[in-house]
């Protein structure tokens, strides 16, 4: 059975953010991830994750001005200084929380635009240098255009070609099964082919983005395939519980029992 991390931006939202660490631990998780921790002090988050005994395995770099529509800065030609600053902030939080994986959001932009593509490459190279010094892996994640219209990185082939082109050992693919199924399906072949460049996996049902096992895909078959393929990394539960978080956790027992 894969090693699961509760996504605290989507799960346990019955509690305030800082209380979600203990709630996840009480529900049997020893690892958590979340999207943006930046409205809280890193020291306060570290105190809560340590007290709860959960490892913080992944979060995102600051995404720019979310309210104004920004969804990451890496591919924005005019936002290089802000991107560099976001790398510093993300790495400071990672050091305080003991986190070894950071997701770099690309931003809204046209993948066919040469200046945008060039900005993305320069940004990722810069971030990879800084992250390598800190022993941190950077993740890039294709995101479907229904959830995030106009997102620059919206294709798995595009992401893998970029990882190859950059050739940086600390840049890997965040394979979100939910986005993959919406973007192109063929999930099992994708996992098998891309395993060497996968640094983190996330899961949610499609199309509802709810608990695994509640959508169009046989999520249990996919999770079994991850085991069979030898994936030993984390699987982030990046789903919105259909009801209460605890009531929705029965999928773990169903997975364990194979029913
Ligand atoms: O939307 C997703 O999928 C993510 O992994 C987020 O971190 C991006 O906001
Ligand atoms: Mg994701």
Automatic annotation (TrEMBL):
This is TIM barrel protein. Keywords: Isomerase. Belongs to the hyi family. It holds the Pfam family AP_endonuc_2. Transmembrane segments: none annotated. It comes from Hoeflea algicola. NCBIfam families: OxoTetrIsom (NF043033). Residues 21-251 form the Xylose isomerase-like TIM barrel domain. The keyword Isomerase applies. The lineage of its organism: Bacteria, Pseudomonadati, Pseudomonadota, Alphaproteobacteria, Hyphomicrobiales. The keyword RNA-binding does not apply. It comes from the Bacteria.
């Amino acid at each position: 059975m894969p090693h699961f991390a509760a996504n605290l931006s989507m799960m346990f939202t019955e509690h305030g953010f800082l209380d979600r660490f203990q709630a996840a631990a009480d529900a049997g998780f020893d690892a958590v991830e979340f999207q943006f921790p930046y409205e809280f002090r890193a020291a306060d988050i570290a105190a809560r994750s340590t007290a709860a005994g959960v490892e913080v395995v992944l979060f995102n770099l600051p995404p720019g001005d979310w309210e104004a529509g920004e969804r990451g800065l890496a591919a924005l030609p005019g936002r290089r200084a802000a991107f560099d600053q976001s790398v510093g902030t993300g790495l400071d939080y990672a050091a305080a929380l003991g986190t070894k994986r950071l997701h770099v959001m690309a931003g809204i932009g046209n993948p066919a635009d040469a200046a945008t593509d060039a900005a993305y490459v320069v940004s990722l190279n810069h971030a990879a240098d800084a992250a390598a010094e800190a022993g941190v892996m950077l993740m890039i994640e294709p995101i479907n255009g229904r959830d995030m219209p106009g997102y620059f990185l919206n294709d798995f082939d595009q992401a893998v070609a970029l990882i190859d082109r950059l050739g940086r050992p600390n840049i890997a693919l965040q394979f979100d099964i939910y986005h993959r199924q919406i973007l192109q399906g063929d999930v099992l072949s994708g996992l098998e082919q891309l395993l060497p460049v996968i640094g983190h996996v996330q899961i949610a049902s499609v199309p509802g983005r709810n608990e695994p096992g509640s959508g169009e895909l046989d999520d249990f078959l996919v999770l079994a395939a991850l085991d069979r393929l030898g994936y030993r990394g984390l699987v982030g539960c990046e789903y919105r519980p259909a009801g209460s978080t605890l009531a929705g956790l029965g999928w773990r027992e169903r997975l364990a029992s194979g029913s």
